[in-house]
Amino acid sequence: KKIAHTWSGLNLEYAPFKNTGVQILQQPPDVYEALDDNEVVLQNMKGNRFMGFFETQITDWAGKLGTVRSVLEVWLEVQRSWCSLESIFLGSEDIREQLPDDAKRFDGIDAEFREQMGDAAQFTSPIEICTASGREEVFNKCQANLELCQKSLSDYLEVKKRRFPRFYFISAVDLVDILSKGRNPP
Q1: pTM
Q2: Angle at 141 between CA 139 and CA 145, to 5 degrees
Q3: Helix 172-180 and helix 135-163, axial crossing angle in degrees, nearest 10
Q4: β-pairing, 14-17 with 22-25?
Q5: Which of 46, 40, 70, 48 is nearest to 58 (CA)?
Q6: Over pLDDT 70: what percentage of the chain?
Q7: pLDDT of the residue at 94
């Protein structure tokens, strides 16, 4: 009952990301604290020889909390990657021209991410949001595709750095900005 009461009072919060119209998840420290505490309590209950009557409830809660943790971890990783690549792949025509396959891949990721965020932002309950059917699979797929986009972008920037050695002293974001505006390297 205490675990159910704890989770009925927890909420996820969102904030707008730039001018994109996307609400992104804010770091949920209270949710992680509850996860840590409640997973330990459930593990201790599982080890108790008198758990028989409550075994179904304990197993159910352990499954829910495990799902919440795994979804939040991949969600925040996808969100971090999406936030860093969004302006590069959607705002830079040079990158879109130089990496057309990755630009198309990112367009698909962007659509899926926006859909997931739009759906998630309608709710605040971490249990309800994270256990939604297919959410973890979509985020895992987005993460795998974001890693491909990041690798292609890194390879592309490495070629540019070799061609213009002074680029080694410029961050990747600044380098993309310089290249997208068609400016000559410093």
Answers
A1: 0.85
A2: 115
A3: 70
A4: antiparallel
A5: 46
A6: 89
A7: 86
